[in-house]
């Protein structure tokens, strides 16, 4: 069955990025890495800006939800370039205005749909 939705647009000044009622963004870890991050790396942007580009290191953890565009969501997603502590080092620079982001626990591997190839690691900060 095909459903056709038609709307009359009398007000052309309406915002195109208005919140979508009932929309929830709950991607899996595999979708975040295998689809959204891969599209970002390949420079293939989506028409809707679901994940904002934000330097999380300019925020303390309690300030991040304010930076998210979706109020009331439990989780927020951001793209952020990984800074280095030293020029020739692999150590990340996680310093914020009031302290630093600390890695806790062990990294969780993220596997592709087949489950055999590791496509990323999930780190809890």
Could you characterize what this model shows?
Helices cover 14% and strands 15% of the residues. With 125 residues, it is of the alpha+beta class. The chain has a domain of 78 residues: Beta Complex (Metal Binding Protein, Guanine Nucleotide Exchange Factor, Chain A). The strands form 2 sheets. The protein has a two-stranded parallel ribbon. Strands 3-4 form a two-stranded antiparallel ribbon. β3 and β4 form a beta hairpin.
Describe, in short, the structure shown.
With 125 residues, this protein is an alpha+beta fold. It contains two helices and four strands; from the N terminus they run αβαβββ. The protein has a domain at 47-124: Metal Binding Protein, Guanine Nucleotide Exchange Factor, Chain A.
Q: What's the topology here?
A:
Blueprint: H1 29-41, E1 52-53, H2 64-67, E2 78-79, E3 104-111, E4 118-124
Parallel strand pairs: 1-2
Antiparallel strand pairs: 3-4
InterPro entries: NAC-dom, NAC_dom_sf
Protein name: NAC domain-containing protein
GO molecular function: DNA binding
């Amino acid at each position: 069955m095909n459903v056709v939705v038609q709307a009359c647009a009398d007000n052309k000044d309406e915002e195109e990025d208005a919140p979508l009622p009932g929309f929830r963004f709950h991607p899996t870890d595999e979708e975040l890495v295998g689809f959204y991050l891969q599209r970002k790396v390949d420079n293939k942007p989506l028409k809707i800006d679901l994940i904002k580009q934000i330097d999380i290191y300019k925020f303390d953890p309690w300030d991040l939800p304010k930076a998210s565009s979706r109020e009331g969501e439990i989780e927020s997603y951001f793209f952020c370039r990984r800074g280095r502590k030293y020029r020739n080092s692999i150590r990340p620079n996680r310093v914020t205005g009031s302290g630093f982001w600390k890695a806790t626990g062990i990294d969780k591997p993220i596997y592709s749909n087949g489950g055999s190839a590791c496509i990323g690691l999930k780190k809890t900060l």
